[in-house]
Design brief:
elongated, about 35% strand, 4 helices, alpha+beta, single chain, four-stranded antiparallel beta sheet, 4 strands
């Protein structure tokens, strides 16, 4: 099963330039949580057999509140934290997009996407 949290908008202070970290920017975070749900969720209609996406959103907001230079680093922290706190999740795909980055070009955003697996908390 895949649970998708799609384009969560968060205002945060990430960037290589000092001004980016001071002024902040709007980011979008998209998650794809790969898991095997329990029978409690599928047959019993119970949250105990799946992932509470409200909890995941809360931890994403906590990680986004920690300033970083690289969105790649933010994506890694989010992925690792999800695997540390959500035992049913086997793998997570994390995309962090900076909207309107200061790069001298007109574009919708720049993103980094990372896949983090539970087995070794490896990335690819």
């Amino acid at each position: 099963m895949i649970i998708t949290i799609d384009r969560l908008k968060v205002f945060a202070h990430h960037g290589v330039l000092e001004q980016e970290r001071r002024v902040g920017n709007t980011f979008e975070v998209t998650l794809r949580l790969y898991l095997t749900p329990g029978r409690e969720a599928l047959e019993g209609d119970s949250l105990s057999g799946t992932v509470n996406y409200a909890d995941v959103i809360a931890l994403v907001k906590e990680e986004m509140a920690i300033p970083s230079e690289l969105i790649e680093h933010v994506a890694w922290r989010i992925g690792r934290r999800i695997l540390d706190t959500q035992p049913l999740v086997d793998e997570v795909e994390v995309a962090v997009a900076k909207l309107c980055p200061p790069c001298g070009a007109e574009l919708a955003g720049v993103s980094a996407t990372l896949f983090v697996k539970r087995r070794q908390q490896s990335i690819h």
